[in-house]
Design goal:
The structure is a single chain. The chain is an alpha/beta fold. The chain has helices spanning 53-56, 92-98, 107-122, 139-142, 145-155, 247-253; strands spanning 58-62, 65-69, 75-77, 82-85, 126-129, 159-163, 178-180, 183-185, 188-190, 200-202, 207-213, 216-225, 229-231, 242-243, 259-263, 268-272. The protein has a single domain, classed as Purple Acid Phosphatase, chain A, domain 2, CATH 3.60.21. The strands form two sheets. Strands 8, 9, 10, 11, 12, 13, 14, 15 and 16 form a nine-stranded mixed β-sheet that branches. Bound molecules: manganese (II) ion (MN). The site of manganese (II) ion has 6 residues, from loops.
Amino acid sequence: MSESARRVPLAPPSPLAGEGWGGGYAARTDSVDLPSSRPPSAVDLPRKGGGDRAKGAAAITIASITFHADPMGALYWPERGVLAIADLHLEKGSSFAARGQLLPPYDSAATLARLARLIAYYAPRCVVALGDNFHDGGGPARLGAEDRESLHALQRGRDWIWLAGNHDPEPAADIGGVFQETLNLGALTFRHQPTGATGEIAGHLHPFARIAHRGRAVSRRCFAADATRLVMPALGVFTGGLNIRDAAFADVFGTLKFTAHMLGEDRLYTFAAKRCLPA
Ligand SMILES: [Mn+2]
């Protein structure tokens, strides 16, 4: 990534209402008040005309670098102006349709709209997409003209780095940006599949956490993190997830001593992983 001069930010966004994440989960987490919970650390973000959104981001420190973790599921590094996102899985709908299994075909537009709100708010100098950006290798070619124009508009005036994922290991044409396997910035390494290395920001696992609340289970996408590494939630609208109590997370963190920052409507809810329910 070039250490480019500060770019002209986009116009301020309209007030950003909380965005629900359906996925069949019945309850909001707003009023969660379990003995196991502790309040998320609030970040006093400067307001950029984004209404109350600024209240919602939480500070998460990884390898001594502090990020703003956004309840929509993105990670912003203010010192570098870097916005990290993971697992967009663009064109998943058309991928399934090609195999005769119909999903609503608007997933790319919905995911790009989610991304547009984040970019309008943070006005990042650089966006890094942590792989599985497209659901399959043919995804970039299937991207519709309107969605492609939306993507190019989001890329205008900033650096854009596509990292390779297991769904999209090869560089693609006509989607802008540059392609890399991994991205090293200071003490951090951004890559698709987590290895558990210190300073690693990864995706791939699509973490979600499940907690008991008023007699029923509530599940939400989450950041999974300890002091030295983090696994990001999937940003794509059609993506499923993996419960953080799955052995894959214990492999990454070495133990159950990590934290789930669950995505609420407009803020994060933080729980120790060992307090979260298994699948
Ligand atoms: Mn993956």
